[in-house]
Amino acid sequence: MKTHAYVRFGRWKELINQALPDDQALYCMSTAMNYYGKGVAHSVLGNVDAALAAQEQFEGAAKRVPRERHIHVVSCEAILGVAREMLAGELEYRRKNYSTAFAHLRQAVINEDTLPYDEPWGWMQPSRHALGALLLEQNHVEEAAAAYRADLGLDDTVLRSNQHPDNVWALMGLHECYTRLGKAAEAQMLKSRLNFALARADLPIKASCFCSLNAAA
Fold first, then answer.
1. 199 CB contacts (<8 Å, ≥6 apart)?
2. How many domains does the chain have?
3. Is there a single domain that holds both residue 138 and residue 107?
4. How many other C-beta atoms lie within 10 A of the C-beta of residue 152?
5. In Å, what is the CA distance from 127 to each residue of 20, 108, 121, 169?
6. Rama region for 130: left / alpha / beta (φ>0; ψ in -120 to 50; rest)
7. Distance separating alpha carbons of residues 108 and 121, to the nearest angstrom
């Protein structure tokens, strides 16, 4: 959970400096997620070689997680399937392999959508938030808008349990999409909901994911 929180709020140095568990055999899932977090952090900071090393360490640690290991009702193997695609997507994005990066991030969304319902969620930061933020950076505005609408539950493409109504991150992303698409009426209708969500936020938000270049700057 700590790794998820650090990624959510862009705590890249904390992720890189986060100590591994003393007993990595017992805490095998924590170890794998630790390497996932380091890989994402190094990717966002442009440390490609270090990110590749963390990705390799993640894969090694993931292999040591027993198939029967679960977090509540969600299998760790399934959670690691989301992490694998997210990490690959972030890494390839920083290597400017954008088509490959988006393919991985889209697969992360698919993998996340197949996770069974649980509280808290088996995957804490919606993968659509990262996908949308990076799509926007590369001017794939329509696809980004679709990702945000699905996340907010504004269409019927995602199960109710995987929707995040009035989520401030997705509202921020969708409002930017509508603005850039020249959909002034839709942007105006969304603005009041975004303002309400921002009023309750503890930190200023520039994008739906701190992994975006603008938010990471």
1. none
2. 2
3. no
4. 22
5. 24, 6, 12, 12
6. alpha
7. 15
- Whose CA is closest to 20, among 33, 11, 39? 33
Residue 29: Cβ within 10 Å count: 21
Task: Walk along the chain (217 residues) and give the pLDDT tens digit of each residue.
Answer: 899 999 999 999 999 999 999 999 999 999 999 999 999 999 999 999 999 999 999 999 999 999 999 999 999 999 999 999 999 999 999 999 999 999 999 999 999 999 999 988 999 999 999 999 999 999 999 999 999 999 999 998 998 888 999 999 999 999 999 999 999 999 999 999 999 999 998 888 889 999 997 765 5
Same domain, residue pair 84 and 112? yes
Q: Which domain holds residue 169?
A: 127-217
Report the alpha-carbon distance of residue 61 to residue 33 in Å, rounded.
Answer: 9
Backbone φ and ψ of 123, nearest 5° = -125, 115
pTM above 0.90, yes or no: yes
State both tokens at 160.
Answer: 């109710």
HSE at residue 66, side-chain half, CA atoms within 13 A, is 8
Q: CB of 148 within 8 A of CB of 174?
A: yes
Report which residue type is found at 209. Answer: C
Give the SS3 label for residue 75. Answer: strand
